[in-house]
Amino acid sequence: MWTVIESPVGELRLVERDDALVAIEFAPVVELPEEDRDDTHPLLVETARQLRAYFDRELEEFDLPLAPVGSDFQQRVWAELRRIGYGETASYGQVALRLGMTAAASRAVGLANGRNPIPIVVPCHRVIGANGTLTGYAGGLPRKQLLLGLESAGLF
Q: Is residue 111 domain-resident?
């Protein structure tokens, strides 16, 4: 099932499968069957509520059942991303080190980060370049900048 919500970063499509969130997609998105849309599905309603609270700066940590689809390595990276706190950032190399790898694995971490199917909730926007610059974001750098600004200064 899926639904669409408006947000400060544009339209978001929320997708659940077997009562777990599997994706948050930035517009434009690939079309899904309209008969699978369910704006009243309890998990999708709760996800929308938590996202609104996040954007209103009333929620710093999401509490949702997640089931992102990916390789074992991607799953490890995405789990580590969830450990980066609200308003904090980490470099790709730092994430690699936290996973018990060398900083040389930062490229692999970056690739897994870019394939994160549940952005915002799994905060891939909190990963930055080693020199502190904003680098790649599947939703585009303006969205990444907005999300980091929301968390650090409470401003858009």
A: yes
- Total of domains in the chain: 2
Using one digit for the tens of pLDDT, what is the confidence trace for 57-113?
A: 999 999 999 999 999 999 999 999 999 999 999 999 999 999 999 878 899 999 999
Q: What is the CATH number of the domain that holds 26?
A: 3.30.160
pLDDT at residue 6, rounded to an integer: 95
Tell me: do 77 and 47 sit in the same domain: no
Q: What is the span of the domain harbouring residue 30? A: 2-55
DSSP characters over the chain: -EEEE--TTS-EEEEEETTEEEEEEESS-----GGGB-TT-HHHHHHHHHHHHHHTTS-SS----B-----HHHHHHHHHHTTSPTT--EEHHHHHHHTTS-GGGHHHHHHHHHT-SSTTTS-GGGEE-TTS-----TT-HHHHHHHHHHHHHS--
Q: What is the pTM of this model?
A: 0.91
Assign 10 a pLDDT band (cuts: 50, 70, 90): very high
Catalytic residue among 21, 124, 128, 147: 124
124 is catalytic: yes
